[in-house]
Specification:
The chain is mostly beta strands and 81 residues long. The protein contains no helices and four strands. It has a two-stranded antiparallel sheet with strand order 1-2. Strands 3-4 form a two-stranded antiparallel sheet.
Length: 81
């Protein structure tokens, strides 16, 4: 039996689970993202609705111009915030 290596968050480096992660649309790397607001865990990125294409966009804090979730100071809100 072969075990797959644990995938790590691109932003914080901690292991990811499918239930609490997403892939950044900009860099293509996985990151922590609570998929429900009432869920527990960290957010190392953000998701928002692209109003032009009516689709969800995902971005890690690195691509949003922030180093880590702790350094953000306020919750991230889309690109250019």
């Amino acid at each position: 039996m072969r075990l797959e290596p644990a995938v790590a968050c691109h932003v914080c480096g901690d292991p990811l689970a499918d239930a609490n992660s997403a892939v950044c649309n900009t860099c293509g790397n996985p990151f922590h993202l609570r998929l429900r607001q009432d869920g527990e865990g960290r957010d190392c990125g953000d998701v928002w609705i692209n109003e032009q294409f009516l689709s969800l966009e995902f971005a890690c804090l690195t691509c949003l111009g922030r180093e880590t979730a702790a350094s953000a100071g306020e919750p991230p809100v889309g690109r250019g915030h």
